[in-house]
């Protein structure tokens, strides 16, 4: 009997079954292929990373912001160029304000106001403040710098006083009674204010003899009258000219574009005007009677508005107002 191992016939290998040698060869080449694919993938990732680094180097992260600023600047310049260079608003209004109020001052009602004022002057009427100072509130206080808004009614109607800032008078002119009461209220809020021994000005006591409030305006106090012109010796003579519509637009602009402002509303007139516009959730609104001698004794002198305003500014990380810094 012949044994299977000596028959001379090779063992049968089923189809699909690999010999050890074939398996080793397959694993060898497969391993090479995987390594090559990994190497290629790493190369692609590295090249992609390098490309991104090049792009980041060529295109700064703030390039979009810079481009936006350029476009905004060009837009603002185009707005200014749309005005006649000899027009009253272009010559006398702060250009930062004019850009924001450009649509408003091109409305028919505003043109009628300017025509009215010019006609009054042509008819030898004395109008205050002088026509080139009507918008001085926008020159002394830049739009972006506004922190506090003091709303008045209409300009002083006596000669040589009004210069476009509510409650303020021209340099060298003694303070009128209402402004004297404002100073008194400040002294009640800050004992020792306007004395020669306190504050940054060694002659602070002398400040009480001046009613020129440009120093407040420079610090961000916007002193805005509701009506911007008046005829000499005739208080409220221009209240129906249209100025209130314009100053409503100014207040609305501040309410919308700014945050954490302080509005000082003294008297029922200012309160009724502003209450319909100001959002008390965005800003601090402080109310009191008017500083006029007729009403100041009914609470204005003890209103503490000047300290409350500064406390609010400090709370919102804004520089406070030096009320002695006239």
UniProtKB/TrEMBL annotation:
What InterPro entries would the database entry show?
A: UDG_fam1, Ura-DNA_Glyclase_AS, Uracil-DNA_glycosylase-like, Uracil-DNA_glycosylase-like_sf
Q: Where is the active site?
A: 154
Top-level taxonomic group: Eukaryota
- Keyword Lipid metabolism found: no
Q: Catalyses which reaction? A: Hydrolyzes single-stranded DNA or mismatched double-stranded DNA and polynucleotides, releasing free uracil
Q: Where is the composition biased (Low complexity)?
A: 1-16
Give the molecular function GO annotations: uracil DNA N-glycosylase activity
Answer yes or no on keyword Hydrolase: yes
Ranges for region Disordered: 1-21, 39-59
Gene Ontology BP annotations: base-excision repair, AP site formation via deaminated base removal
Assigned keywords, A-Z: DNA damage, DNA repair, Hydrolase, Mitochondrion, Nucleus
- Entry GO CC: mitochondrion; nucleus
Q: Where does this protein have compositionally biased stretches of type Polar residues?
A: 44-53
Its subcellular locations are: Mitochondrion; Nucleus
EC number(s) per UniProt?
3.2.2.27
Q: What class of enzyme is it?
A: hydrolase
- Residues in Uracil-DNA glycosylase-like domain copies: 139-313
Main subcellular localisation? mitochondrion
CDD domains in the cross-refs:
UDG-F1-like
What NCBIfam families does this protein's entry cite?
A: PRK05254.1-1 (NF003588), PRK05254.1-2 (NF003589), PRK05254.1-5 (NF003592), ung (TIGR00628)
Recorded family membership: Belongs to the uracil-DNA glycosylase (UDG) superfamily. UNG family.
Q: What does this protein do?
A: Excises uracil residues from the DNA which can arise as a result of misincorporation of dUMP residues by DNA polymerase or due to deamination of cytosine.
- Identification of the protein by name: Uracil-DNA glycosylase
Q: Which organism is it from?
A: Smittium culicis
């Amino acid at each position: 009997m012949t044994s299977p191992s000596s028959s001379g016939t090779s063992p049968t290998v089923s189809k699909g079954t690999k010999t050890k040698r074939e398996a080793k060869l397959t694993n060898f080449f497969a391993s090479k292929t995987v390594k090559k694919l990994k190497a290629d993938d790493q190369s692609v990732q590295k090249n992609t990373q390098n490309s991104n680094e090049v792009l980041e180097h060529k295109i700064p992260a703030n390039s979009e912001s810079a481009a936006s600023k350029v476009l905004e600047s060009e837009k603002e310049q185009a707005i200014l160029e749309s005005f006649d260079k000899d027009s009253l608003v272009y010559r006398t209004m702060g250009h930062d304000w004019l850009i924001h109020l450009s649509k408003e001052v091109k409305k028919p009602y505003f043109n009628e106001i300017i025509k009215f004022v010019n006609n009054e002057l042509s008819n030898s009427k004395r109008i205050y403040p002088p026509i080139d100072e009507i918008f001085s509130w926008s020159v002394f206080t830049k739009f972006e710098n506004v922190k506090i808004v003091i709303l008045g009614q209409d300009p002083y109607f006596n000669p040589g006083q009004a210069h476009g800032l509510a409650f303020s008078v021209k340099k060298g002119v003694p303070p009128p009674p209402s402004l004297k009461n404002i100073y008194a209220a400040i002294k009640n809020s800050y004992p020792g204010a306007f004395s020669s021994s306190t504050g940054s000005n060694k002659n602070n006591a002398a400040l009480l003899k001046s009613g020129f409030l440009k120093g407040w305006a420079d610090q961000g106090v916007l002193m805005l009258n509701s009506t911007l012109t008046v005829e000499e010796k005739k208080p409220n003579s221009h209240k129906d000219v249209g100025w209130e519509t314009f100053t409503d637009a100014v207040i609305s602009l501040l309410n919308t574009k700014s945050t954490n402002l302080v509005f000082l509303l003294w008297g029922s007139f200012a309160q009724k005007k502003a209450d319909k516009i100001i959002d008390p959730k965005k800003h601090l609104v402080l109310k009191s009677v008017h500083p006029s001698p007729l009403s100041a004794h009914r609470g204005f002198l003890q209103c503490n508005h000047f300290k409350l305003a500064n406390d609010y500014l400090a709370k919102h990380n804004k520089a406070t107002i030096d009320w002695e810094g006239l």
